[in-house]
Specification:
The protein is of the alpha+beta class. The chain is built from ten helices and 13 strands. The structure holds adenosine-5'-diphosphate (ADP) and magnesium ion.
Protein backbone atom coordinates (compact mmCIF):
# COMPACT_ATOMS: atom_id res chain seq x y z
CA UNK A 1 0.00 0.00 0.00
CA UNK A 2 1.60 3.26 -1.15
CA UNK A 3 1.21 6.68 0.40
CA UNK A 4 -1.64 7.75 -1.89
CA UNK A 5 -3.58 4.50 -1.51
CA UNK A 6 -3.21 4.87 2.26
CA UNK A 7 -4.60 8.41 2.17
CA UNK A 8 -7.43 7.41 -0.16
CA UNK A 9 -8.45 4.42 1.91
CA UNK A 10 -8.15 5.72 5.46
CA UNK A 11 -8.30 9.50 5.38
CA UNK A 12 -10.12 10.89 2.34
CA UNK A 13 -13.50 9.58 3.64
CA UNK A 14 -13.13 11.92 6.63
CA UNK A 15 -13.56 14.90 4.35
CA UNK A 16 -17.16 13.90 3.67
CA UNK A 17 -18.66 14.13 7.15
CA UNK A 18 -21.77 16.24 7.28
CA UNK A 19 -21.63 19.68 8.88
CA UNK A 20 -24.52 21.98 9.84
CA UNK A 21 -25.81 23.62 6.63
CA UNK A 22 -26.26 26.95 8.43
CA UNK A 23 -22.49 27.19 8.97
CA UNK A 24 -21.29 30.65 7.99
CA UNK A 25 -17.95 29.33 6.75
CA UNK A 26 -17.10 25.88 5.43
CA UNK A 27 -14.63 23.61 3.71
CA UNK A 28 -14.98 24.13 -0.04
CA UNK A 29 -12.24 21.85 -1.39
CA UNK A 30 -10.90 18.89 0.59
CA UNK A 31 -7.95 16.48 0.09
CA UNK A 32 -6.51 15.74 -3.37
CA UNK A 33 -5.21 19.04 -4.69
CA UNK A 34 -2.16 21.09 -3.72
CA UNK A 35 -4.16 23.08 -1.17
CA UNK A 36 -7.56 22.87 0.44
CA UNK A 37 -9.96 25.81 0.13
CA UNK A 38 -12.05 27.26 2.91
CA UNK A 39 -14.96 29.60 2.35
CA UNK A 40 -15.10 32.33 4.98
CA UNK A 41 -18.47 34.05 5.12
CA UNK A 42 -18.64 37.85 4.89
CA UNK A 43 -18.19 39.45 8.29
CA UNK A 44 -16.42 36.39 9.73
CA UNK A 45 -12.73 35.75 10.43
CA UNK A 46 -10.79 32.49 10.13
CA UNK A 47 -9.06 31.30 13.32
CA UNK A 48 -6.63 28.37 13.43
CA UNK A 49 -4.35 26.48 15.77
CA UNK A 50 -1.96 23.53 15.46
CA UNK A 51 -1.16 20.82 18.02
CA UNK A 52 1.53 18.15 17.77
CA UNK A 53 1.37 14.86 19.62
CA UNK A 54 4.56 12.78 19.90
CA UNK A 55 4.46 9.15 21.01
CA UNK A 56 6.05 8.77 24.45
CA UNK A 57 5.65 12.49 25.20
CA UNK A 58 1.97 13.34 24.70
CA UNK A 59 0.57 9.83 24.70
CA UNK A 60 1.98 6.51 25.93
CA UNK A 61 3.81 4.08 23.66
CA UNK A 62 1.37 1.51 22.21
CA UNK A 63 -1.62 3.73 23.07
CA UNK A 64 -4.76 2.27 21.45
CA UNK A 65 -5.03 3.83 17.96
CA UNK A 66 -8.81 4.39 18.11
CA UNK A 67 -8.36 6.38 21.31
CA UNK A 68 -5.43 8.28 19.85
CA UNK A 69 -7.44 9.36 16.81
CA UNK A 70 -10.36 10.56 18.91
CA UNK A 71 -8.26 12.23 21.58
CA UNK A 72 -5.93 14.02 19.16
CA UNK A 73 -8.79 15.78 17.40
CA UNK A 74 -10.65 16.51 20.65
CA UNK A 75 -7.56 18.16 22.13
CA UNK A 76 -7.02 20.26 19.01
CA UNK A 77 -10.70 21.27 18.81
CA UNK A 78 -10.55 22.49 22.41
CA UNK A 79 -8.52 25.49 21.26
CA UNK A 80 -11.40 26.48 18.97
CA UNK A 81 -13.77 26.23 21.94
CA UNK A 82 -11.51 28.51 23.99
CA UNK A 83 -11.69 31.20 21.27
CA UNK A 84 -15.47 30.90 20.99
CA UNK A 85 -15.04 29.70 17.39
CA UNK A 86 -17.33 27.62 15.20
CA UNK A 87 -15.47 24.57 13.85
CA UNK A 88 -14.81 24.49 10.06
CA UNK A 89 -12.26 21.77 9.18
CA UNK A 90 -8.88 20.28 10.11
CA UNK A 91 -5.64 19.10 8.50
CA UNK A 92 -3.57 16.11 9.60
CA UNK A 93 0.21 15.71 9.29
CA UNK A 94 0.92 12.09 10.13
CA UNK A 95 4.35 10.51 10.61
CA UNK A 96 4.21 6.71 10.85
CA UNK A 97 6.91 4.08 11.43
CA UNK A 98 5.09 1.75 8.99
CA UNK A 99 1.75 1.35 7.21
CA UNK A 100 0.13 -1.07 9.67
CA UNK A 101 -3.38 -1.64 8.27
CA UNK A 102 -4.97 -2.61 11.57
CA UNK A 103 -3.51 0.48 13.26
CA UNK A 104 -4.57 2.79 10.42
CA UNK A 105 -8.10 1.38 10.39
CA UNK A 106 -8.58 1.91 14.14
CA UNK A 107 -6.84 5.29 14.20
CA UNK A 108 -8.90 6.67 11.32
CA UNK A 109 -12.10 5.26 12.91
CA UNK A 110 -11.37 7.15 16.15
CA UNK A 111 -10.57 10.27 14.20
CA UNK A 112 -13.76 9.86 12.15
CA UNK A 113 -15.85 9.53 15.30
CA UNK A 114 -14.44 12.77 16.72
CA UNK A 115 -14.67 14.61 13.38
CA UNK A 116 -18.36 13.69 13.13
CA UNK A 117 -19.07 14.66 16.73
CA UNK A 118 -17.35 18.05 16.49
CA UNK A 119 -18.41 18.89 12.90
CA UNK A 120 -14.83 19.01 11.57
CA UNK A 121 -14.27 17.51 8.09
CA UNK A 122 -10.69 16.65 7.09
CA UNK A 123 -9.33 19.23 4.63
CA UNK A 124 -6.00 17.56 3.77
CA UNK A 125 -2.67 16.66 5.26
CA UNK A 126 0.76 15.22 4.84
CA UNK A 127 1.90 11.63 5.32
CA UNK A 128 5.51 10.69 6.04
CA UNK A 129 7.55 7.84 7.51
CA UNK A 130 9.30 8.19 10.87
CA UNK A 131 8.65 7.97 14.62
CA UNK A 132 4.90 8.13 15.39
CA UNK A 133 3.91 11.81 15.51
CA UNK A 134 0.77 13.63 14.54
CA UNK A 135 0.06 17.29 14.01
CA UNK A 136 -3.49 18.49 13.71
CA UNK A 137 -4.37 21.98 12.58
CA UNK A 138 -7.93 23.00 13.34
CA UNK A 139 -9.68 25.76 11.46
CA UNK A 140 -12.63 27.68 12.83
CA UNK A 141 -14.42 30.93 12.33
CA UNK A 142 -15.77 33.79 14.46
CA UNK A 143 -17.77 36.92 13.65
CA UNK A 144 -15.21 39.69 13.09
CA UNK A 145 -13.76 40.90 16.40
CA UNK A 146 -15.75 38.39 18.47
CA UNK A 147 -12.99 35.90 19.33
CA UNK A 148 -12.56 35.47 23.09
CA UNK A 149 -8.91 36.30 23.85
CA UNK A 150 -6.82 35.67 26.96
CA UNK A 151 -6.11 39.34 27.48
CA UNK A 152 -9.57 40.78 28.22
CA UNK A 153 -10.03 40.06 31.94
CA UNK A 154 -10.76 43.14 34.10
CA UNK A 155 -10.65 43.64 37.90
CA UNK A 156 -13.96 42.54 39.41
CA UNK A 157 -14.68 39.95 36.71
CA UNK A 158 -15.89 36.55 37.88
CA UNK A 159 -13.71 33.49 37.18
CA UNK A 160 -15.63 30.41 36.15
CA UNK A 161 -14.74 26.92 35.06
CA UNK A 162 -16.78 24.36 33.11
CA UNK A 163 -17.42 20.76 34.17
CA UNK A 164 -15.06 19.36 36.79
CA UNK A 165 -11.27 19.33 37.04
CA UNK A 166 -8.56 16.78 37.77
CA UNK A 167 -10.07 13.59 36.37
CA UNK A 168 -7.82 13.31 33.32
CA UNK A 169 -4.74 14.09 35.43
CA UNK A 170 -5.72 11.43 37.95
CA UNK A 171 -6.14 8.97 35.06
CA UNK A 172 -2.46 9.23 34.09
CA UNK A 173 -1.56 6.90 36.98
CA UNK A 174 -4.23 4.42 35.88
CA UNK A 175 -3.41 3.90 32.20
CA UNK A 176 -1.87 0.47 32.83
CA UNK A 177 -4.46 -0.79 35.37
CA UNK A 178 -5.91 -3.97 33.83
CA UNK A 179 -9.23 -4.14 35.72
CA UNK A 180 -10.20 -0.59 36.71
CA UNK A 181 -12.93 0.02 39.30
CA UNK A 182 -15.98 2.05 38.12
CA UNK A 183 -14.44 5.21 39.63
CA UNK A 184 -11.12 4.54 37.93
CA UNK A 185 -12.94 3.88 34.65
CA UNK A 186 -14.75 7.22 34.96
CA UNK A 187 -11.40 8.99 35.38
CA UNK A 188 -9.88 7.07 32.45
CA UNK A 189 -12.79 8.04 30.21
CA UNK A 190 -12.03 11.71 30.85
CA UNK A 191 -8.44 11.16 29.66
CA UNK A 192 -9.28 9.04 26.62
CA UNK A 193 -12.27 11.08 25.44
CA UNK A 194 -11.92 14.77 26.30
CA UNK A 195 -15.04 16.87 25.56
CA UNK A 196 -13.99 20.12 23.91
CA UNK A 197 -16.55 22.70 25.05
CA UNK A 198 -17.38 23.94 21.55
CA UNK A 199 -21.00 24.92 22.11
CA UNK A 200 -20.21 26.53 25.46
CA UNK A 201 -17.37 28.57 23.91
CA UNK A 202 -19.71 29.80 21.20
CA UNK A 203 -22.40 30.76 23.77
CA UNK A 204 -19.79 32.81 25.63
CA UNK A 205 -18.96 34.98 22.60
CA UNK A 206 -19.75 38.58 23.41
CA UNK A 207 -20.21 37.68 27.09
CA UNK A 208 -16.87 36.35 28.40
CA UNK A 209 -14.02 38.85 28.76
CA UNK A 210 -11.32 36.14 28.52
CA UNK A 211 -11.10 32.37 28.08
CA UNK A 212 -8.57 29.55 27.96
CA UNK A 213 -8.91 25.78 27.81
CA UNK A 214 -7.40 23.92 30.75
CA UNK A 215 -4.72 21.77 29.12
CA UNK A 216 -1.79 22.31 31.51
CA UNK A 217 -3.60 22.64 34.86
CA UNK A 218 -5.97 25.30 36.23
CA UNK A 219 -3.30 27.35 38.04
CA UNK A 220 -0.98 27.41 35.04
CA UNK A 221 -3.74 28.21 32.57
CA UNK A 222 -5.45 30.84 34.72
CA UNK A 223 -2.01 32.45 35.10
CA UNK A 224 -1.89 32.82 31.29
CA UNK A 225 -5.12 34.85 31.45
CA UNK A 226 -3.71 36.96 34.29
CA UNK A 227 -0.42 37.63 32.45
CA UNK A 228 -2.15 38.49 29.19
CA UNK A 229 -4.67 40.74 30.93
CA UNK A 230 -2.23 42.40 33.36
CA UNK A 231 -4.38 41.55 36.40
CA UNK A 232 -4.36 39.22 39.43
CA UNK A 233 -6.89 36.83 40.93
CA UNK A 234 -8.28 35.40 44.13
CA UNK A 235 -9.15 31.76 43.76
CA UNK A 236 -11.51 29.97 46.16
CA UNK A 237 -10.02 26.46 46.20
CA UNK A 238 -13.06 25.07 48.05
CA UNK A 239 -15.26 26.00 45.10
CA UNK A 240 -13.21 24.13 42.46
CA UNK A 241 -15.59 21.50 40.99
CA UNK A 242 -14.50 17.90 41.59
CA UNK A 243 -16.16 14.72 40.34
CA UNK A 244 -17.24 12.09 42.84
CA UNK A 245 -14.84 9.70 41.06
CA UNK A 246 -11.77 11.78 41.94
CA UNK A 247 -12.98 12.64 45.46
CA UNK A 248 -13.56 8.94 46.19
CA UNK A 249 -10.27 7.76 44.73
CA UNK A 250 -7.70 10.44 45.63
CA UNK A 251 -7.00 12.04 49.01
CA UNK A 252 -5.16 14.82 47.13
CA UNK A 253 -8.06 15.42 44.70
CA UNK A 254 -7.90 19.20 45.01
CA UNK A 255 -4.15 19.39 44.30
CA UNK A 256 -4.64 17.22 41.23
CA UNK A 257 -7.52 19.44 40.09
CA UNK A 258 -5.43 22.59 40.48
CA UNK A 259 -2.20 21.38 38.93
CA UNK A 260 -2.84 18.51 36.50
CA UNK A 261 -3.73 19.11 32.87
CA UNK A 262 -5.57 17.22 30.14
CA UNK A 263 -9.13 18.09 31.26
CA UNK A 264 -9.87 20.48 28.37
CA UNK A 265 -12.51 22.33 30.36
CA UNK A 266 -12.86 26.08 29.81
CA UNK A 267 -11.70 28.68 32.34
CA UNK A 268 -13.44 31.98 31.58
CA UNK A 269 -13.82 35.43 33.08
CA UNK A 270 -16.79 37.72 32.69
CA UNK A 271 -18.16 40.91 34.23
CA UNK A 272 -20.68 40.13 36.98
CA UNK A 273 -23.38 42.00 35.03
CA UNK A 274 -22.97 39.55 32.11
CA UNK A 275 -23.86 36.50 34.21
CA UNK A 276 -27.58 37.31 33.76
CA UNK A 277 -27.18 37.22 29.99
CA UNK A 278 -26.32 33.54 30.02
CA UNK A 279 -29.08 30.99 29.53
CA UNK A 280 -29.86 28.66 32.40
CA UNK A 281 -28.35 25.69 30.53
CA UNK A 282 -25.06 27.57 30.05
CA UNK A 283 -24.94 28.66 33.71
CA UNK A 284 -25.36 25.05 34.76
CA UNK A 285 -22.15 24.15 32.94
CA UNK A 286 -20.13 26.73 34.89
CA UNK A 287 -18.89 27.02 38.48
CA UNK A 288 -17.78 30.28 40.07
CA UNK A 289 -14.27 29.78 41.50
CA UNK A 290 -12.92 33.28 42.06
CA UNK A 291 -12.54 36.90 41.10
CA UNK A 292 -10.13 38.98 39.07
CA UNK A 293 -8.23 41.56 41.16
CA UNK A 294 -6.33 44.69 40.28
CA UNK A 295 -3.37 43.57 42.42
CA UNK A 296 -1.18 41.19 40.42
CA UNK A 297 -0.53 37.61 41.55
CA UNK A 298 -2.72 34.59 42.14
CA UNK A 299 -3.95 34.25 45.73
CA UNK A 300 -5.42 30.85 46.58
CA UNK A 301 -7.72 30.57 49.59
CA UNK A 302 -8.87 27.37 51.24
CA UNK A 303 -11.06 27.36 54.39
CA UNK A 304 -10.43 31.09 54.57
CA UNK A 305 -6.64 30.51 54.76
CA UNK A 306 -4.09 31.55 52.18
CA UNK A 307 -2.39 28.62 50.48
CA UNK A 308 0.69 28.33 48.35
CA UNK A 309 0.75 25.61 45.74
CA UNK A 310 4.07 25.22 44.00
CA UNK A 311 3.43 23.22 40.86
CA UNK A 312 2.32 25.49 38.03
CA UNK A 313 1.77 23.00 35.22
CA UNK A 314 3.87 21.33 32.60
CA UNK A 315 6.29 23.04 30.23
CA UNK A 316 8.67 21.47 27.72
CA UNK A 317 12.43 22.29 27.77
CA UNK A 318 12.72 22.79 31.55
P1 LIG B 1 2.05 17.88 -2.10
O1 LIG B 1 3.23 17.06 -2.52
O2 LIG B 1 1.45 18.72 -3.15
O3 LIG B 1 2.27 18.59 -0.80
P2 LIG B 1 1.04 15.50 -0.92
O4 LIG B 1 1.61 14.41 -1.76
O5 LIG B 1 1.69 15.79 0.39
O6 LIG B 1 0.89 16.81 -1.81
O7 LIG B 1 -0.50 15.19 -0.62
C1 LIG B 1 -1.40 14.92 -1.70
C2 LIG B 1 -2.82 15.22 -1.25
O8 LIG B 1 -3.19 14.32 -0.22
C3 LIG B 1 -2.99 16.62 -0.70
O9 LIG B 1 -4.23 17.13 -1.13
C4 LIG B 1 -2.99 16.42 0.78
O10 LIG B 1 -3.78 17.38 1.45
C5 LIG B 1 -3.59 15.03 0.92
N1 LIG B 1 -3.11 14.31 2.11
C6 LIG B 1 -1.84 13.89 2.39
N2 LIG B 1 -1.78 13.24 3.58
C7 LIG B 1 -3.04 13.27 4.08
C8 LIG B 1 -3.65 12.79 5.27
N3 LIG B 1 -2.95 12.13 6.21
N4 LIG B 1 -4.95 13.02 5.44
C9 LIG B 1 -5.67 13.69 4.51
N5 LIG B 1 -5.18 14.14 3.37
C10 LIG B 1 -3.88 13.95 3.14
MG1 LIG C 1 2.82 17.69 0.95
Amino acid sequence: MGEFELIRRYFSPLSAISVPSESASRLELGPGDDCAIQRVAAGWQPVFSVDTLVEGVHFPKDYAPHRLGYRALAVAASDLAAMGADPVCFTLALTLPDADKRWLKDFSAGLHEAATEFGLPLAGGDTTRGPLTLSIQVHGTVPEGAAILRGGAEPGDLILVSGSLGDAGAALDLLTVSAPTPDQQALLNRYHRPSPRLSLGRELRGIASAAIDVSDGLLADLQHILDASGVGAELDADAVPLSSAIVDSRSDALEVALTAGDDYELCVTLPESHWRRLTESVRQQLTLIGKITEASGLVIRQNGQRRDIACRGYTHFE
